[in-house]
Amino acid sequence: MKSLAMGSMTTHEYNEWWVKRINDNVPRPSSEKSQSIEEHLRVVPSELEIIKQDFEKRNAELEKKIEQMEEEKMNLRLDIDVQKLEVEKLMKGKNKAEEDLDDLKTNY
């Protein structure tokens, strides 16, 4: 019986060519379109999300404006109350002056 020693069926040049061919098929990042992983994975908001954010911002602005107007309304009510008290005081003073004048007229 003869035994046959089997060696590698491929040559060294073929192995180098094969490794180069495999490595050539591996995509490499191009320097033109290079992005960081964070940029690549960044979530772009949808149109609905943008509209929702705008709505919430506008709603917050309007709520703040409503609060300011309610505060102004309260201050105006306080001013009205003060004015009413002053009018009542002046009316009492006027009535007292008229009574005093009538008393003077009747006494003379």
What do the pLDDT scores average to? 84
Helical segment count: 3
Distance between the termini: 166 Å
Low-confidence stretches: none
Q: Roughly what percent helix?
A: over 70%
Strand element count: 0
Structural class: mainly alpha
The biggest beta sheet is recorded as: none
CA-atom Rg in angstroms: 47 Å
Strand content: under 5%
What does this structure look like?
The chain is mostly helical and 108 residues long. It has a domain at 49-108. It contains three helices and no strands. The chain is rod-shaped, with a radius of gyration of 47 Å.
Task: Describe the protein's topology.
Blueprint: H1 12-24, H2 37-41, H3 47-107
The gist of it:
The chain has 108 residues and is mainly α. Helices cover 73% and strands 0% of the residues. It has a domain at 49-108.
